[in-house]
Design a protein that fits this description.
Length: 364
């Protein structure tokens, strides 16, 4: 205990303390008693919590809750201004845009029950060629082609089925996604998957590529553009589809691919920035035959049948290339259809040949 009452928490002044000592020595009966230790502690705590005295003109501090409400209101106002200035960016954060950082949809495993919802309006640009399209949320290239789990089927065990499914997808990549093929090159790598011993198939392909016609249309298997007329925008092709399989004839593994491809293109002239999208949906059914029952070559399949449905690809234009129309000049004399609606079966426009009708797409 020190001689200074305030230093050790006592509420007694120096004068009173000296008086207490003097009168205690003299035996004064009414001398004040020393405060208890508990009293000194309480007094010191009250002084520390009280804080400095407030000036008579100093405004009282805002209550904490009112201050928080003020800050929250200020932030909300700033957010509204940001949305008004750049709504596209905010939409992209919540999956409504087609920015590169948007997570793609999970792979398709079954046929969907309905068409994808309508997208926010937006014109495609060279920087964002899939803006305003459901394809903005699709995966890129082969990642958008779902491959099912393999199980023993027909003459193949599980491992052989898995390999056949992988090679079927490799054919789709080589025929519809290979950059060289898309730019008009001969699809030799894709052709190598076709069973050379299947009667008439290789002959059909050779004739279709060299002299395309309504009856010999190479687009039923391959995607190709005339680079003298159009140019692909970027390196990304959006895809959505899946493979399915079952046991086919003579114990073959029958694999069906149903895939929609979306190709953004511009005119092949300097400075062209009008982006249009060519949409191709193909269904190709192939047999991986048992070599003990069917003449085949290892690593190849036989084509069973195929169907082709295109949008903005040149209706009744049998040039061997996908031929888009610009300025909304596409001929339209057929039924209305949504090219992104994968809940319906493939509408085979190629099978009609010269009698094909140019359908009206509800969106592109």
């Amino acid at each position: 205990m020190t001689s200074g009452g305030e230093q050790d928490g006592s509420a007694v002044s120096d004068e009173e303390w000296e008086r207490f000592l003097r009168e205690s020595e003299e035996g004064v009966p009414d001398a004040p008693r020393e405060p208890s230790a508990r009293a000194r502690i309480v007094t010191r705590r009250l002084r520390e919590e009280a804080g400095p005295p407030q000036g008579w003109r100093t405004p009282p501090p805002a209550p904490p809750r009112r201050r928080l409400r003020y800050v929250a209101g200020l932030l909300a106002a700033a957010a509204l201004v940001f949305v008004a200035l750049d709504p596209g960016r905010v939409t992209g954060w919540f999956g409504g845009g087609d920015r590169a950082d948007s997570a793609p949809l999970a792979a398709e495993t079954v046929r969907p029950s309905s068409a994808p919802p309508a997208e926010a309006a937006g014109r495609a640009t060279p920087d964002e060629p899939f803006r305003g399209s459901p394809a903005a949320h699709w995966a890129d290239g082969e990642a958008g082609i779902g491959v099912p789990t393999a199980r023993a089927t027909g003459w193949m065990g599980r491992t052989e089925v898995a390999r056949a499914l992988e090679r079927t997808r490799d054919f789709l990549v080589a025929s519809s996604l290979d950059p060289r093929v898309l730019r008009g090159a001969r699809p030799d790598r894709a052709i190598a998957f076709l069973n050379p011993l299947q009667p008439g198939e290789r002959e059909f392909v050779d004739a279709a590529l060299s002299e395309p016609s309504a009856k010999k249309n190479p687009l039923v298997l391959f995607s190709r553009f005339d680079t003298g007329r159009v140019r692909l925008v970027g390196d990304v092709v959006k895809t959505r589809g899946r493979l399915t399989y079952r046991e086919g004839e003579r114990g073959a593994l029958e694999v069906t691919s149903d895939v929609t491809y979306v190709y953004p293109v511009v005119r092949a002239v300097p400075g062209s920035d009008e982006v249009v999208r060519v949409i191709v949906r193909r269904e190709v059914v192939v047999d991986w035959d048992d070599p003990a029952k069917v003449r085949t070559r290892e690593g190849t399949f036989s084509v069973v049948r195929n169907s082709l449905d295109t949008t903005n690809a040149g209706c009744r234009a049998y040039t061997g290339y996908l031929t888009p129309d610009f300025d909304g000049a596409a001929r339209q004399d057929g039924p209305t259809a949504d090219p992104y609606d994968r809940s319906r079966p493939v509408r085979d426009t190629a099978g009609a040949g010269e009698d094909a009708r140019c359908g009206t797409a509800t969106r592109s």
